[in-house]
Amino acid sequence: MRPERFLTAEQQETVVAAVRLAEKDTSGEIRIHIDSRCTRDPKKRAEEVFRKLGMQNTELHNGVLIYLAYESKVFAIIGDKGINDLVPDGFWEDVLSVMRERFRRNEFTEGLSDAAIMIGEKLKAFFPYQKDDINEQPDDISFGQN
After folding, report:
1. Do the Cβ atoms of 140 and 41 come closer than 8 Å?
2. pTM assigned to the model
3. Cα dihedral across residues 67, 13, 11, 3: positive or negative
4. Which residues pair with 77 in a beta bridge?
5. According to DSSP H, which parts of 53-106 are helical?
6. Is residue 18 classed as helix, strand or coil in its secondary structure?
7. If 109 and its partner were Cys, which of 11, 17, 87, 136 is the partner (CB 3.0–4.6 Å)?
8. What angle do CA 41, 72, 146 make, to 5 degrees?
9. What is the distance between the alpha carbons of residues 57 and 102, in angstroms, rounded to a whole number?
């Protein structure tokens, strides 16, 4: 199955709505990328996707990528330098735990949506929304490798 078809149009809308809601209280940028397969370390693939999407180009270096390769059953969360310089080790573990539990139950829409909301909550402590904030990254889901 092509990655674009993994979630229905309605499910994609739900996930994108969660990203928009999550970004409402933070200047952080959240993106979601879906591949069908990942044949290497998912964190390395997520880093590659992060760069390809230009997420390192945000003004405060506060972008976060949620990566999922559904057929390979792997996922990762990558934060940019601005985030990683401020947060403690294990910062994403609770989000990864929620995703793991949701994905085990084949609740991918819910897992991605919950992750986005949780990340938004975490980011607002370090990167609160500013009046002049602009959306530096698209909110839609990106898709990649079959």
Report:
1. no
2. 0.94
3. negative
4. 66
5. 81-84, 93-104
6. helix
7. 11
8. 100
9. 31
